[in-house]
Every structure is written in structure tokens, then in C-alpha cells.
Design goal:
Layout (H helix, E strand, L loop, with lengths): L9 E4 L5 E5 L3 E7 L3 E6 L6 E4 L5 E3 L4 E4 L3 E8 L4 E9 L6 H4 L7 E5 L11 H9 L4 E8 L5 E3 L20 H5 L21 H10 L3 E8 L3 H10 L7 E4 L2 H10 L4 E6 L3 H10 L4 E5 L5 H9 L3 E5 L4 H8 L5 E4 L5
Parallel strand pairs: 2-4, 3-9, 10-11, 10-18, 11-13, 13-14, 14-15, 15-16, 16-17, 17-18
Antiparallel strand pairs: 1-2, 4-7, 5-8, 6-7, 8-9, 11-12
InterPro entries: Big_2, GP_PDE_dom, Invasin/intimin_cell_adhesion, PLC-like_Pdiesterase_TIM-brl
GO molecular function: phosphoric diester hydrolase activity
Protein name: GP-PDE domain-containing protein
Length: about 325
């Protein structure tokens, strides 16, 4: 993501509700909420000149106090005669703060990070998963496919072309070949993320375990479902992980191996048929496009005591439309504007 530099961050909580962030290394990373003020400090006795790469997003005064003015990201520089310290700051809006929704007595809706926090970090990467945890999401969704040599990697597309500097179909490439590529595009990608690698399923689940995230694993192209379940079990997620797919054959294969696995079908159309299939095969629930959801479908899902997740929710307006249907979770890139 950045050059590997040892970061030392000291956060001192002051009674006046002002946070302090200190840095000794060349750069560090921080996320704050819209409207918040924090004090940045550098451990040096030299005179410091403070500046912001975008004052519309984050302004900074001569003492290192920053104010989050607008959603986005900016770099704050602290310059001395011999050295420049960088604070890479992102501003998130209060509405997209998951705690305001999933801990609300009124809604009780789980916010699910789509391909990780893909509005701010490269999709389907360890960095995006880590960022989802930082934003207090409970569940993180990511996609998986199987390589030519039977390894599971985290990627949405059937090929590596769109998001990496490599080329080729995942099913025709080995794990080592894919690991030699780096992420250079895709949802959430920007110049701050360099030398990011395609993660394996094991690596993604390790981060989920460390950050107490429930994985919602979207199965794209997988042949060996038995091996997949073994990987998930070895990672300690047999009871917690939720597996979803639009491929009914994959869902039925997994169901035949382990009836207790949490399974959801992904739907973008033919909602009535999808509900019928889920009911017949006793699936955990349905992960449906907001465009295909209506009151009739929502009632059918809830009547059969199935979990209802909704994806394709990228705005507050659309969230407000689907929330009235008694949904259990929203799959979103993280920022609802």
C-alpha cells in the first residue's frame, strides 16, 4: 500500500474532546469524521510549516490543528528544513458511519462492506478489508475464484485484466502467477495504493479473524467446493462465514456437503423464482439487488424466515427506499451520499 515504513502513532484523548495524532516516521494514515477537529503533532524541536493538499477537504492551521470540511481525502504536510512528514487523511461522512445504522434501535440493519471498503481502497484487497473494520462494519463481502492449481483468490472478475497489471483468466493461471501481479486499477484504486497484491482466501479470512469481521464470501468460479469448505473450517469460520452465489449448482453442492453452512443466493432478477429456490432448499437467505426488491418479494422472504440482504445501494435516497422493507443488511461501498 505504501513503502514499508515503521509508523508510530500516539493518540492522546483530551478532556476537551480534541484528539491528538503524533508521527515520527515519514508518513502515516488517519480517518476522521466530517466536522471533526484533530491536532497533528511531530516529534521535533524544529520549526514546522503546515500545509494541506486540498483545503476544501481538510484545512490546517499553523499549530497542526486540522478540520474535516468535506468528504474526501487529502495529504497534510509538516515541513522542517531537513524533513517532510506526511499525514494521509480521509474524511468520512456521519451518515455512512455504520454505528449510526446497525446500532440504531429504529433500524437494526447490518452494514456490509462491498468488496471491502471499496470506495476508499482497492476492491477485494486486504487493505480494503482492514479499512472496513476501521469504519466499524460488522460484515465484509468479497469475491473468490479458483486458480488453475486449485487455490482460492479474492477477485471479482473471471480474469485479472481489469484490476491488475497482468492478463489472463483466473482459471488458466496459477496462484504464483497471479501473486506476481499487483493491483493497478478497479473500484477504489488510487495512487496512494502501490504494490498491492491479490490476496488469497486464507489471507482475507486471517484479517477477518483479527479484526472480528464476519465474511460474506461471494463465490464466483469454484470447482472444488469440498476444498473450499475445508479452507473456511481451517480458518475458524465454519459457523460464522456466510457463503453466497448466483450459481445454484454451487449452492446445492455445498448444501450436500454440509447442511449447516450459511448459504445465500444472489439475485438481480427473477425474484419470485429465487425466493422459491431458497425456500425449497432451506437457504439462510437472499442477497438481492435493490432494483429487484419490492414489498411483495420482501414479505415473501420474511414470511419464510430468511435473511434479507440488499446490494446495489450507493445512495442515501436508495437506502431510504429499501429500508422500509424490513431488510436485515445493506451491501454498500461504504459512502452513502
Amino acid at each position: 500500500m505504501y513503502k514499508k515504513i515503521t509508523l508510530i502513532i500516539a493518540i492522546i484523548i483530551m478532556s476537551l474532546s480534541m484528539n491528538y495524532l503524533s508521527v515520527e516516521a515519514a508518513s502515516t494514515y488517519k480517518t476522521i469524521r466530517l466536522g471533526e477537529t484533530e491536532k497533528l503533532t511531530v516529534k521535533t524541536k524544529k520549526k514546522i510549516q503546515w500545509s494541506s493538499s486540498n483545503t476544501n477537504i481538510i484545512s490546517v492551521d499553523s499549530k497542526g490543528n486540522i478540520t474535516a470540511n468535506q468528504i474526501g481525502k487529502a495529504t497534510i504536510k509538516a515541513k522542517t528544513k531537513k524533513k517532510t512528514y506526511k499525514f494521509i487523511i480521509r474524511v468520512k461522512d456521519t451518515y455512512s458511519d455504520s454505528t449510526m445504522i446497525h446500532k440504531s434501535k429504529e433500524h437494526k440493519i447490518k452494514m456490509i462492506a462491498h468488496r471491502g471498503m471499496s470506495s476508499l481502497a482497492p476492491e477485494n484487497t486486504l487493505e480494503a478489508i482492514e479499512l472496513a473494520a476501521s469504519y466499524e462494519f460488522e460484515i465484509v463481502e468479497f469475491d473468490i475464484s479458483e486458480t488453475a492449481d486449485g487455490k482460492f483468490i479474492v477477485m471479482h472478475d473471471s480474469s485479472v485484466d481489469r484490476t491488475t497489471n497482468g492478463t489472463g483468466e483466473i482459471s488458466e493461471l496459477t496462484y504464483e502467477q497471479i501473486k506476481s501481479f499487483h493491483i493497478d486499477g478497479g473500484n477504489g484504486y488510487d495512487k496512494w495504493y502501490k504494490s498491492v497484491k491479490v490476496p488469497s482466501l486464507e489471507e482475507a479470512l486471517k484479517v477477518c479473524k483479527k479484526r472480528n469481521l464476519t465474511p460474506l464470501i461471494h463465490i464466483k468460479q469454484v470447482k472444488d467446493t469440498s476444498k473450499l469448505l475445508k479452507v473456511i473450517k481451517k480458518s475458524g469460520f465454519s459457523k460464522q462465514a456466510i457463503l453466497c452465489s448466483s450459481n445454484t449448482n454451487i449452492l446445492l453442492k455445498i448444501k450436500a456437503i454440509n447442511k449447516k453452512t450459511k448459504l445465500m443466493i444472489v439475485a438481480s432478477r427473477d425474484a419470485k423464482k429465487v425466493v422459491s429456490f431458497a425456500k425449497k432448499n432451506k437457504l439462510t437467505g437472499i442477497n438481492i439487488s435493490s432494483k429487484a426488491l419490492n414489498l411483495e418479494i420482501a414479505n415473501a422472504i420474511k414470511r419464510n424466515k430468511m435473511t434479507l440482504y440488499v446490494w446495489d445501494v450507493y445512495s442515501k435516497k436508495r437506502f431510504d427506499r429499501v429500508v422500509k422493507y424490513g431488510i436485515d443488511g445493506v451491501v454498500s461501498d461504504g459512502i452513502l451520499k
